[in-house]
Design brief:
Chains A, B: Belongs to the HypE family. 2 copies of one chain form a homodimer. Helix content of chain A is 30%, strand content 25%. The first copy, chain A, has a 7-stranded mixed sheet with strand order 9-11-8-12-10-13-14, with helices on both faces. The first copy, chain A, is α+β, with helices and mostly antiparallel strands. In chain A, helix 5 (194-203) packs antiparallel against helix 8 (275-283). Chain A is globular, with a radius of gyration of 19 Å. At the A-B interface, helix 1, strand 1, strand 2, strand 5 and helix 3 of A face helix 1, strand 1, strand 2, strand 5 and helix 3 of B.
Chain lengths: 329, 329
C-alpha cells in the first residue's frame, strides 16, 4: 500500500521502475504536472487516478477530487486547465444511480473550475475485481508566457507561504471512514486553485515554485522541493495554520498534521521582495483568506527540511515512507 | 459488464449519464478522440483505461495496448501522438516484477510509436479491490491543417476501406483466456497506426472519417458512423479480410468476426476519386499490406449497415448490445 502513498516508496517506484522504462526527459522533471511544447505553445499536462473511499464524504466526492486534483496539478505550473479527459473503471454491480451521482459531481466541479470535459472512456470489470468506481482524469492547459514554476528555481532567501489551513481533507476522510467523531464535523477543503494562482501570478509571474500538498501532506511537498532544489527549508511550526478540529483529531490518532493530505491548498516559494504583495493577493481570495508565511529557504542543511518548534527546539521533517491513511484521493 | 463493451449499452451510458452531466460541446462529438483548440492550434485529446486480462498475451501486453490504443484514437483524428500521460492503479500484492514488465512494455511501445510519456501517477488499492494492474493513458497531438475527420462528413458514394485482417486481437485474447487451441497460435494485431494514417493523409488530407474498430469490432464502428452521418452503409461480406485462424475460431465459438475487437486496424471512409490512391498508399505500408475495399456509402436505408452475403442475400449488421468477450483491452 505504501507505494501508492506519495512518500519515499512512491518516489522509489518512479525513480527505479517508471522513469527508466519510459525514458523521457519530461517525466524526469517529476513535477505535479509536465511542461511540454506543442505547436510552439507551452502546455501543462497532468494525470491522476482517484480511488478514494468512501466515494462521497463531507465536503466532496470522488468526482470533485477528480476535477480539482488535476486542475490543481496544472495550476502548480501556472496553467489554467482548459480541457479534461475522464476515464471510469466501474465494478460490475455498482448502482447506476451512484455512477450518475459521481458524473454529476464531476460535471458540476468542472463547470465551477471553468474546465471542459472533452473526452472520456468507460471500462467495466467483474464484481470483486474493482471497487465501485475508480476515476482517472488528465488535463491540459496553457502556461502563460514568463511563468516558469519548478523547484530548481528555489534559492536561499525565498519565503515559504501556505494558502490556508492544513490537514483538513485527510481528517475529513478519516472521520467518515473510521466512524470517528471529533466534536465538530470536518469538511474536506477540496477546491480548484486556478483562480487563486492567477491572482498570485498577477502580482508577479516570477514565483519560483508552487506545489499542492496532497498525499504525504505538507511534509512530502517540502521535502520534494528541498531535494530537487538542493536547498534547506526552515519552517516555524507555530506559523503553520492547523485548525483546532484537525489538531484535536491528529492528537487523538497520533498523527502529525504536517503529513495529512490537503486537496484545496498550495505551498508557494516566493522571492522575498514579492512576498508581502503575493500574501496580500492570496488573502484577498476566498481560497487564500488564511494564507500565512510559514518559513524560508536557507543555504544550510541542503535537501533537508527542519521545523523550529514552539519551545525553541529544532526537529527534522522527514519525507514520509508511505501515506498514513490509504486511498484518500 | 455490457456497459463497458463499446456497444449499445455503452452508448446509452454516455448519452444518458455522462454527456448530460458533463455538458460540454466537445464530448458531444463522441469520436475516438476530441478535437480541441488551444493557443490557436487544433489538438486531438483522448483517454482510455485498460483492464485487459491476462496482462500478457500472444503479440502484446496491457502496456502495448495502453500506448497503441490511445495513439490510435489520436490518429483517427489525423493527429500524430506527441505526449502521453500514464496512470497505474495497482492491486496490493502485485509482484513488482510484473509492474516492471508492464512499464517496460509501455516504454518500448511508446518509443516505437514516437510518443513521449510525459507525466504519470500511481495509486494502490487493497488486495481484492483491484486486479493486478489497471492502466489509463491520455494523449495529445496536433491535427494537421486541412484535416477534418468526422462521421458527419461521410456522404453517399464514399468508399469503405479496412487496413487489413479483422478479428485478430479478440481471438488472440480469447485463446489464452479460455485455454482454447485453434491449431495455430493467433497473435494480437496490436500496433500504432500513426504512420499508416500519415501515409494516407499524404495522398489527400480530404479523408472523411477514420475509426479503429476495437470493442464491438467492425460492426460497432460502422454502426456508429452510419448513425452519426445519417447515411446507409453496404458491406460486401466476402471482401472483408478474415484470416482462416480467426474464421475457424469464430466458427467453433459461434462468434461473428465482424463483432470481434481489433487493436491495430482502421476503417476509412474515402471520397471515391481518392480511393485507389489511398488504397495503394495503405498497401505500401506494412500495417496496411492486406488493406481492402469492403463496401460503400449509400443514400438508402439511412443509419443502417447491411452486408451482402456470399450467397447474394442481405443481412442487417446491428450495433452489438455489449462486447462478446469482456476485458479485451
Amino acid at each position: 500500500m505504501g507505494h501508492g502513498g506519495g512518500g519515499a516508496l512512491s518516489a522509489e517506484l518512479v525513480e527505479h521502475i517508471f522513469a527508466p522504462a519510459f525514458g523521457g526527459e519530461t517525466l524526469a522533471q517529476l513535477g505535479d504536472s509536465a511542461a511540454v511544447t506543442l505547436a510552439g505553445a507551452r502546455l501543462a499536462f497532468s494525470t491522476d487516478s482517484y480511488v478514494v473511499r468512501p466515494l462521497f464524504f463531507p465536503g466532496g466526492s470522488i468526482g470533485d477530487l477528480a476535477v480539482n486534483g488535476t486542475v490543481n496539478d496544472l495550476a502548480m505550473r501556472g496553467a489554467r486547465a482548459a480541457y479534461l479527459s475522464c476515464g471510469f473503471i466501474l465494478e460490475e454491480g455498482v448502482e447506476m444511480s451512484v455512477v450518475a451521482r459521481v458524473a454529476e459531481a464531476l460535471g458540476a466541479a468542472a463547470r465551477a473550475a471553468g474546465v471542459e470535459v472533452a473526452t472520456g472512456d468507460t471500462k467495466v470489470v467483474e464484481s470483486g475485481h474493482g471497487d465501485g468506481v475508480f476515476l482517472n482524469t488528465a488535463g491540459i492547459g496553457l502556461i502563460p508566457p514568463g511563468v516558469d514554476l519548478r523547484p530548481q528555481r528555489v534559492v536561499p532567501g525565498d519565503v515559504v507561504v501556505v494558502s490556508g489551513d492544513i490537514g483538513v481533507h485527510g481528517v475529513a476522510i478519516m472521520s467518515v471512514r473510521e466512524g470517528l467523531e471529533f466534536g465538530v464535523e470536518i469538511e474536506s477543503d477540496c477546491a480548484a486553485l486556478g483562480e487563486l494562482v492567477d491572482a498570485m501570478l498577477a502580482v508577479t509571474p516570477d514565483l519560483h515554485v508552487l506545489r499542492d500538498p496532497t498525499r504525504g501532506g505538507l511534509a512530502a511537498a517540502l521535502n520534494e522541493i528541498a531535494t530537487a532544489s538542493g536547498t534547506g527549508i526552515v519552517i516555524q511550526e507555530r506559523a503553520v495554520p492547523v485548525p483546532p478540529g484537525v489538531a484535536n483529531a491528529c492528537a487523538i490518532l497520533g498523527l502529525d498534521p504536517m503529513y495529512v493530505a490537503n486537496e484545496g491548498k498550495l505551498v508557494a516559494f516566493v522571492p522575498r521582495e514579492h512576498a508581502d504583495a503575493v500574501l496580500g493577493a492570496m488573502r484577498s481570495h476566498r481560497l487564500g483568506a488564511n494564507a500565512a508565511v510559514i518559513g524560508e529557504v536557507v543555504a544550510d542543511h541542503p535537501t533537508m527540511v527542519v521545523a523550529r518548534t514552539g519551545l525553541g527546539g529544532t526537529r527534522v521533517v522527514d519525507l514520509p515512507i508511505g501515506e498514513q491513511l490509504p486511498r484518500i484521493c
